[in-house]
Amino acid sequence: MSAAPDHKPTFADLSLSDRIGKAAPYLLIPVLVVLGFLAIGSTSSWLTLTVSGLAMGMMIFIMASGLTLVFGLMDIINFGHGAFISVGAFVGITVLIWLGGWTGAPSLVLNVAAVLLAVVAAMCVTGALGWGFERVIVRPVYGAHLKQILVTVGGLIVIEQLIHVVWGPEEIFLNRPETLKGAITFAGAAIERYRLLAVAVGLVLFIAMRLVLRRTRIGLIVRAGVQNGEMVEALGYRLRLVFIGVFIAGSALAGLGGVMWGLYQEVITAGMGEEMMILVFIVVIIGGLGSVEGAFIGALLVGLLQNYIAFLEPKLALISNIGLMTAVLMWRPQGMMPVVKAK
Questions:
Q1: CA triplet 199, 201, 203: central angle to 5 degrees?
Q2: Where are the transmembrane segments (predicted)?
Q3: Torsion of Cα atoms, 54 then 62 then 87 then 265, to 10°
Q4: What is the dihedral of CA 113, 114, 117, 119, to 10 degrees?
Q5: How far apart are CA 119 and CA 91, in angstroms?
């Protein structure tokens, strides 16, 4: 009689220490929030900073989520991802300027419709740009990391210069739609309406990505491809098409993040994507290669920590994220929740 096959132990089967280790990344956010409250002291200031940190983290997650899948599935180091952020911001803001009558109206329906149209336009353009970027720039250097860095940085520079040609070299200042301006007061804290919207969008996107990756066939193929691409291809799936689809989706998400970040800062520049790539890469590294959940937790940690430190000790804000990344990598060298081992 043959032995019963071994099964991967469930969470309930793990020892107490293993359970704590598995749950530790999820506990970091509430621990940081509590420590922030104790350090700040003022409930109203803490609440304002917490919402601001969550909003910032959600927007960074939007930009980082596609990149972490590209890292894990395709083994591509794509420094050109920042170009999609910049292009998405410029395309989205251009649409909002064209729809000035809608954004200036005191109507939530018209304001939201204008933002949705801007987001759709930005995601379509950056998705198409990502398709061309993968075919022309990335595909010839699969498996060669040094060449990937060189050609994707070159692509980033070229696209930034094209932005200068199309939109000009100057910064573009903008106003948020009328109903997204200002703040609401809660428990004595002033919370900006737009930041609440950013938190909601990021949360919805995370839930949607999690459902797609865990509950659909294409999600199963993507997760399997991240862990063992050769086996997926041996089963007859065309993993190359999945590669292209993930790259396009990641580029489109970068465009969405660009629009959200531009409205958050109320100013856009050709170099904004390049500047954001520092935070995006920190989030991907902290979270672990290929992990959407890890990127989500890492982005929230980055946003919260930066806001708390900027309030408590502004001079340390610039190095807070580097310190966070160093601490996480000393604790877990492959990131908090890696899906694949670092190559």
A1: 65
A2: 23-40, 46-71, 83-102, 108-129, 149-167, 194-213, 241-264, 276-304, 316-333
A3: 0
A4: -110
A5: 9
Q: For residues 50 and 38, give the distance between their C-alpha atoms in angstroms, rounded to a whole number.
A: 13
Please compute the mean of the pLDDT values over residues 6-10 and round it to a whole number.
52
> At residue 185, what are phi and psi to the nearest 5 degrees?
-105, 125
Q: What tens digit of pLDDT does each residue of 15-73 get?
A: 666 677 677 888 899 999 999 999 998 888 999 999 999 999 999 999 998 888 787 77
Q: What is the pLDDT of residue 5?
A: 46
Going from the C-alpha of 93 to that of each of 210, 250, 280, the distances in angstroms are: 29, 20, 22
Query: How does pLDDT run across 97-147, given as a tens digit for each residue?
Result: 999 889 888 888 999 999 999 999 999 999 999 999 988 888 888 778 788
Radius of gyration (Cα) for the chain, nearest Å? Answer: 21
Strands 172-173 and 183-186: unpaired
Neighbours of 217 (CB within 10 A): 8
Please give the full DSSP string across 219-250, using - where no structure is assigned.
HHHHHHHHH-HHHHHHTT--HHHHHHHHHHHH
Question: Picking from 10-14, 31-35, 211-215, 287-291, which range would have the lowest pLDDT averaged per residue?
Answer: 10-14
Q: Specify whether the CB–CB gap between 117 and 256 falls below 8 A.
A: no
- The CA distance from 239 to 222, in Å, is 8
Nearest to 270 by CA among 175, 168, 174: 168
Our CA angle for 285, 288, 294, nearest 5°, is: 105
CA distance 319 to 339: 27
What is the pTM (predicted TM-score) of this model? Answer: 0.88
pLDDT band at residue 334, thresholds of 50, 70 and 90?
Answer: confident
What element of type H or E holds 287?
helix 272-287
SS3 53: helix
DSSP structural state of residue 169: S
**Integer Cα distance of 103 and 115 in angstroms:** 8
